[in-house]
Amino acid sequence: MARFICIFSLGFCVLLSAPIFAESATEAADKGSVQIKDTSAGARLYVMHKCYECHRAQKHHIGPSWQAISQRYSKEEDKARLVARLSVKVIEGGYGNWGTLPMNSNPGVSPEDASTLVEWVLETN
Ligand code: HEC
Per-residue confidence at 30, pLDDT binned at 50, 70, 90? Predict the structure, then answer.
């Protein structure tokens, strides 16, 4: 009987944790695909600075997707000014362009790395 309860509860536990495993596997794949398919400096910085906690390439996830950002600013003529403006936002954070949720500041990102990241984001289509 004790053995039955033991096996039963173990099975229940596995059943309960399955969705959690599934979720983290998807997350890993999302991060992993960036690491494996895209070896550019932008992709490396994206992983290093954990931008994936709020951003994905194609789907909204807390913050806007790279695709949505790239599309919104695709008509901007002065690319250098755009990159400078968005780079400041990456470092200092801010809100109001995509809703009410603010982006936190990322003081660990250097101005050079912020530009590399923004240029990489703007290339997403
Ligand atoms: C804690 C969540 C979070 C993290 C981490 C985060 N962002 Fe954001 N990001 C947001 C949110 C929310 C917005 C939308 C802000 C707004 O409405 O203006 C945003 C907006 C942006 C924008 C568009 C800004 C605009 O004004 O259109 C860029 C570019 C961006 N993020 C890049 C990055 C990069 C690069 C990183 C990694 C260094 C990063 N984000 C990390 C939440 C985050």
Answer: low
Tell me whether residue 57 is in a domain: yes
Q: Which atom of ligand 1 is nearest to the CA of 45?
A: 38
> For residue 83, how many other CB atoms are within 10 A of its CB?
20
The boundaries of the domain holding residue 45 are 19-122
Whether 125 is in the pocket of ligand 1, judged by its Cβ within 6 Å, is no
φ/ψ of 86, rounded to 5, equals -70, -30
pLDDT at position 29: 43
Spatial CB neighbours of 118, under 8 Å, sequence gap ≥ 6: 83, 86, 87, 90
Please give the number of the atom of ligand 1 that sits closest to the Cα of 101. Answer: 12
Q: How many domains does the chain have?
A: 1
Does the pTM of the predicted model rise above 0.90?
no
pLDDT tens, position by position, 67-103: 999 999 999 999 999 999 999 999 999 999 999 999 9
The enclosing domain of 66 has a CATH number of 1.10.760.10
Q: Which of 40, 47, 52, 54 to mutate to test the pocket of ligand 1 (most atoms within 8 A of CB)?
A: 54
